[in-house]
Amino acid sequence: MSDPPSNTSGPKLLPYFLILFGMSAGLSSVITLGAEFKQELGFSNFEIGLTIFSGFASSFIALITLSPQADRGHSPILLKSGLITGIVALLFLAIGDSLWYFIVGRSLFGFALGAISPAAKRTVIVSDSKEIGKNLGKLGAYDAAGWVLGPAIAAALNAINDFRTPFWGMAIALTFFIPTALKAKPDQAERDLEKKRPSDLFRIRRFNGAALILVAYFVFIGAFESVWVLEMDSRGASNWQIGIAITCAALPIPLLSVKGGVLAQRFGARRWAVGTLAIITVFVCTFGLVEGLLALIFLTIIASSFEGLGLPSGPMLVSVSVPEERQAAAQGLAASLQVAAGALATIMAAAIYETTNDTVAWAVTASVMAVLLVFGWVLTKPPDGKPIKPDVTFDLKRRLFE
After folding, report:
1. Distance CA 49, CA 347 (A)
2. Per-residue model confidence as pLDDT tens digits over 144-170
3. Alpha-carbon distances of 184 from 18, 79, 164, rounded to whole Å
4. In the predicted model, what is the mean pLDDT of the chain?
5. pLDDT tens across 175-223, in order?
6. Cα 158 from Cα 290, distance rounded (Å)
7. What string of H, E and C letters represents the secondary structure of 146-171?
8. pLDDT (0 to 100) of residue 137
9. Rounded to 5 degrees, what are φ and ψ at 334?
10. Residue 251: φ, ψ to 5°
11. Contact in structure between 373 and 357 (CB atoms under 8 Å)
């Protein structure tokens, strides 16, 4: 098993936190307006799913091709270029009047996030290995906070004028993060001087298991993007109600993410990740069994509470499974698998939802999640198979795989 990162004299983390926050707010505002695209532009459910898929696909490409660059000292460059690309993407969405504009806009935004995310995670991970859970929890909290505020901002701007106003507003807002991005500095941890291929990481069994656990989560995310908002619309929710509902549903994630990271490091990221996702899987099954808006929102809020608690544990498992100089490549490869799974789940869930109903779509989603969690649990099993008591002091890397 690889040693966890040990560098403690890393760069300031705030620029990475803030940029990820801004980009997440931009993406969540786009998702919130999915029903508006249907009403104002006449997009079908499949066409909306196609725009979402394009974002996943471009993010997948960026994660695979650009994440190794962060391991070679280029994290600040990825942060700055990703931010600029995100602004351009929002401008495409603001002026778009046909499907291809929205495909290009979502593609550019997905590519931007794919460049930023692994760079931010590597910098956070190598900054202090003793606080890996807390720091990843903070990163997750900023990320989720963007998701919380984005829908509310989008709904408010949409109510003031029209559905294009949120894109203009978000693009302008992101320009204010440019000075912050310019302050980003490279970390001082070990670098991938040999320029190894990301595919080499598949030789590590525990990395494969950690990746499957993360994939299970993004199967849910993909289905959520393509089904949840449209189902809210079909149940009679207006656009502002959808925005407020997403904000309320996502609120527990930033509030609980830091605590979740601390608990995952204390009790074991492996059991924490699988345990929280197993509970989420159960709630996913119930989404299609209840009627009305309030019941669906209530169940989603409970599920998101466990999302917040479990959010940092997956990246923690990925981190400890690889050497320090491969952190960004590992996070990028794992995230690319997440994105691929999310894209596939988006298309499949949209197709199932359009041909059947939300009950079937959520049941299939939960079943796939359960299978992935079982395989992830097996592959991340510690070599000796012996349980460790929480009050016994021992090496951090062993704790994370418990």
Report:
1. 6
2. 898 888 877 887 888 888 888 888 988
3. 11, 8, 31
4. 85
5. 988 988 888 777 777 787 677 888 899 999 989 999 999 999 999 998 9
6. 29
7. HHHHHHHHHHHHHHHCCCCHHHHHHH
8. 93
9. -60, -40
10. -55, -40
11. no
Neighbours of 61 (CB within 10 A): 15
Domains, the chain: 14-182+203-400 (1.20.1250.20)
Q: What is the percent of the chain with per-residue pLDDT over 90, rounded to a whole number?
A: 37
Q: What is the pTM (predicted TM-score) of this model?
A: 0.81
Rounded to the nearest 5 degrees, what angle is found at the Cα of 143, between the Cα atoms of 119 and 51?
Answer: 90
